[in-house]
Amino acid sequence: QSALTQPPSASGSPGQSVTISCTGTSSDFGGYNYVSWYQQDPGKAPKLMIYEVTKRPSGVPDRFSGSKSGNTASLTVSGLQAEDEADYYCSSYTGSSWVFGGGTKLTVL
Amino acid sequence: QVQLVQSGAEVKKPGASVKVSCKASGYTFTDYHIHWVRQAPGQGLEWMGGINPNDGGTYYAQKFQGRVTMTRDTSISTAYMELSRLRSDDTAVYYCASDLLRTTCGVSWGQGTLVTVSS
Q1: Which residues, other chains included, contact B63 with Cβ-Cβ below 8 Å and sequence gap of 6+?
Q2: Closest in B61, B101, B111 to A97, CB measured
Q3: Please, are residues B76 and B23 in contact by the beta-carbon 8 Å criterion?
C-alpha cells in the first residue's frame, strides 16, 4: 500500500483556521471509518488527536476536528495557537494493514 | 497511567539483527494490540505491523514480511520486535504503540528506540 497523500506544508496566523487534507484510494480506506490523525513535535513520539474520522480523545482541544468525504479525510485546526505548530500525520486501516500519510508540517505564522 | 517503555538505542552492522522491547503498564496487556511504527531520520511514519498480545497472532506490512518478527511475553507485559538482515536504510527510530481504542494503530506510544545501522 502506498502512503496516503498529504500536502507537505500548511500555515496560518494565530486565530485562523487551517485544514490539512489526506487523500487515498478506496482501498486505502478499506470501507472502514478508521482514520486517525497524529501530532508530532520534533524528537517526540506521535500523539493521537483524532480517531474514527471525527472523534477526539479526552484532553484534545475541541479546536481540532476531523471529517471525511469520499477518499479524502481532513483535519481542521480552528483558532490556531503557537503550540499547534508541529507535524501532522493521517493514518487509515485498509482492511488488512495500516497506512500513513507522508506528513504535513504546520507552521503558525 | 498507561505507559510504554522501550529498550535503549542500538548500533548494528549491516546484515545483523536487532530486537527492541516494549514494556507496558497501567492497563491489561492482553486486551489491546501493540503496533510497531518506524521513522527514518527526517522522514514520515511507517507502519511495520502489529501483534495481538492475547494469542500472539501477528500481522505484518508486506514490505517487512520475512524480515520482521513480533512476539510477546505476557508474564512481564512486554512486546518485542525483531528485524533481521539489517541495511543502512533501516536506520530509524522504532516506536511501539498500544491501540487502546481498538480502531487505531496507536493511542499510547513508547518513547522510541533509535536503531543505527552502520559498518
Answers
A1: none
A2: B61
A3: yes
Q: Which residues pair with A89 in a beta bridge?
A: A38
Around Cβ B55, how many Cβ atoms within 10 Å?
Answer: 9
Contacting residues of B for A93, CB less than 8 Å apart? 103, 105
User: Does the pLDDT of residue A2 top 60, yes or no?
Assistant: no
| Residue from A2, A56, A97, A51 nearest B106 by CA | A51
Distances (CA, A) of A68 to A35, B6, B7, B30, B101: 9, 34, 37, 32, 19
Per-residue pLDDT of chain B (119 residues; tens, 9 = 90+): 999 999 999 999 999 999 999 999 999 999 999 999 999 999 999 999 999 999 999 999 999 999 999 999 999 999 999 999 999 999 999 999 999 988 999 999 999 999 999 99
Indicate the DSSP class of residue A36: E
Interfacial B residues in 50-69 facing A (CB < 8 Å): 50, 59, 61-62
Residues 6+ apart with CB under 8 A from A80: A12, A13, A14, A15, A16, A17, A18, A108
The Cα–Cα gap between A107 and A10 comes to 6
Interchain contact, A89 vs B101, CB within 8 Å: no
Min Cα distance B73 → chain A (Å) is 23
**Chain B CB within 8 Å of residue A34 CB:** yes
H or E element: which one contains B71?
strand B68-73
